[in-house]
Amino acid sequence: MRAEIPADEPKRLAALAEYDILDSLPEAAYDDITHLASELCDAPMAAVSLIDENRQWFKSTVGLQVKETPRDVAFCSHAILSDEVLVVPDAFDDVRFADNPLVMGDPKIRFYAGAPLVARGGERLGTLCVIDHAQRPLTDGQSKSLQALARQVMAQLELRRLISEQRLFRRRLERANDRLRTASITDDVSGFHNTRFLHEFLDDYLSSTRPDPLSLVFFDMDGFKAVVDEHGHLLGARVLREVAQAVGRELEDRDELVRYGGDEYVVILPGQQGDDALAKTERLKEAVRSTRYLAGEGLAVRVSASFGVATFPDDAADKEELLKAADHCLFESKAAGKDRVSRASTIRPVSRT
User: Are residues 328 and 344 in contact, defined by beta-carbon separation less than 8 angstroms?
Assistant: First the structure.
């Protein structure tokens, strides 16, 4: 006879899903409980059974060779209709099971006792059950032991759920921290890195035992105040972003672009020095000058920028010296007529157009 469907079936199935236990691998914690149930109840077969929508799935078994059965033939489908232990002393004499294929055929169930696995919300998820080939009673002591062990199964399931929730919480926390970390080193206007990133990057890079050379490029726009005066601060901010994007397109993956403040930017060139760093800076200058920047309402402006380049360790022994050297070179470019590159090793403009 097929068991009735519990009145709380949708809620019960949802609770079962929360434990994420179905089709999981064998675990010693459950196997230990199943073997103990078999010993205490003097039964050759025992199982931790979970009743899914259309099947009975076994998390752990003793004396049974199957992993699941159809739900409509499962003794445990009847056991989850009550909080009490379901005892079937002789399946042949029980109208619900007399013609059950698990009675008539393998595993030839004659005796069954199942203690329901009750979740924290009262949902009965399955059973801890013991089975025998011969008719027999279940003593009061065995019944109490079976119920106690069923509670231990639920304790294991609850622990599994809590660990899973903790892992999920940790992943969410890590993602939130990543977002906060990204926000803390990102400039709101340009979308590129900010000065906090610059200092952290240089501290990490230069603190290694034998750091590779690194060049620092300072640049800011020439006559940017006139752009703001003519087109307004909002469109000025737009030009700031577009200048950063024009420079960013010329950079390699290893390079970093930082908004230093106002209309001033810093480019970090790890592993680059001398003529290589200078040649790249020249390309950045040309990229800024050759780009048309939209100022709104069909208007476009062109801007130029002045650049200063300094290299560790050739021009500076530490972070502070490197920042000062690159900034000084930028000042030299501005003083020499703008729209040019100055290099720390020369302290004079090395390009002019």
Answer: yes
Three-class SS state of 58: strand
Distance CA 186, CA 3 (A): 61
End-to-end Cα spacing for the chain: 95
Mean pLDDT of the chain: 92
* Position 229 pLDDT exceeds 90: no
Buried b / exposed e across 257-284, counting CB within 10 Å, b at 16+?
Answer: bbbbeebbbbbbbeebbeeebbebbbeb
Q: What DSSP designation does 219 have?
A: E
Structure tokens at 299: 């208007």
What distance in Å separates the CA atoms of residue 115 and residue 161, rounded to the nearest whole number? 21
**Separation of alpha carbons 340 and 308, rounded Å:** 9
Give the model's pLDDT for residue 262. 85
For the chain, which domains are there? 9-167 (3.30.450.40), 195-349 (3.30.70.270)
| Cα diameter, the chain | 107
Q: Is the pLDDT of residue 154 over 90?
A: yes
pLDDT at 350 over 80: no
Evaluate if residue 310 carries a pLDDT over 90.
yes
Task: Please say whether the beta carbons of 265 and 259 come within 8 A.
Answer: yes
Mean pLDDT confidence for 212-218: 95
In the three-class reduction of DSSP (H, G, I as helix; E, B as strand; rest coil), residue 33 is classed as helix
Q: Are 219 and 308 in contact (CB under 8 A)?
A: yes
Decide: 264 and 306 in contact? Cβ < 8 Å: no
Residues 47, 126 contacting (CB under 8 angstroms): no
Integer Cα distance of 326 and 247 in angstroms: 17
CA triple 25-27-30, angle to 5 deg = 125
The answer for 105, left when phi > 0, alpha when psi is -120 to 50, beta otherwise, is: beta
Q: Can you list the pairs that 199-204 forms with residues at least 24 positions away whose Cβ atoms lie under 8 Å?
A: 199/319, 201/256, 201/268, 202/268, 202/319, 202/322, 202/323, 203/319
> What 3-state class would DSSP assign to 110?
coil
Structure tokens at 27: 């675990």
